[in-house]
């Protein structure tokens, strides 16, 4: 090798190794003293370099004390509801990778490195841990509702997820800092999934064992109450993100009602030349006007929704990938 090449090699600055990504484990908790310490220790063992945050949501037991004893960073969110906690966590914490899980010991911390590796190696924005195992079998009502919600989401927003209600997921900084959280309670998981589908972000799923809660720990999820809230959230998000289809369906239904009301009136008029049922004729015309108005609303709101989608996309692109 020539002396000139040797000199160039010596003068060339050493290539710096890329710094490891900063990982934040986010655990929203409400009355989880029976499990939170073991959850924190599990994620500490699985992710030794991660910062583990426990966000207490007005617990009346010793959740905070148990989390502190296990070495977690404890913060508080006074507004009740998981959605409020997630909004606060994603706003407050600065990291490259955000891992969200529940503090009830149902999710396996040993799967965390695999979820993070998939997110980083495939340059994804979200990896969801799909739940499998005895925990799902023990909660048949929740499992049935989950299957129904997955089907509704797939039908309305497209395929992409098979377990939208999983509380165990990893998201990128891009996703976390561009996600416009609006939910208050357990519907937050639905909002996370729909946001990813609406912007067509890169996502993936990995099956993970889902266990049972400890004996002295109770679920905060109400099958019927929270199920109805999730359905309402899906309907409102469909109205906001797919307004032309939403108002178009309403307009088509109103138009059909108008035609059914007007049919006998028109038939009588063609036979006799008279309109004896003025109230029915007026009602049919009014319903048809509502149908047209609904269609016009759909066209206008669709343009607004497209502008909002473009703004969210630009905000997402402003942020650098980890």
Automatic annotation (TrEMBL):
Q: Where is the Glycosyltransferase 2-like domain?
A: 25-175
**In its keyword annotation, does this UniProt entry include Chaperone?**
no
Is-annotated flag, keyword Transmembrane? Answer: yes
Which CDD domains does the protein's record reference?
DPM_DPG-synthase_like
Under Pfam families, the record lists: Glycos_transf_2
Q: What would be an example GO MF term here?
A: transferase activity
Source organism, top-level taxon: Bacteria
Query: Any idea which UniProt keywords this protein has?
Result: Membrane, Transferase, Transmembrane, Transmembrane helix
Coiled-coil segments: none
Q: Which InterPro entries match?
A: Glyco_trans_2-like, Glycosyltransferase_2, Nucleotide-diphossugar_trans
What is the protein name given in its UniProt record? Glycosyltransferase involved in cell wall biosynthesis
Organism field: Hansschlegelia beijingensis
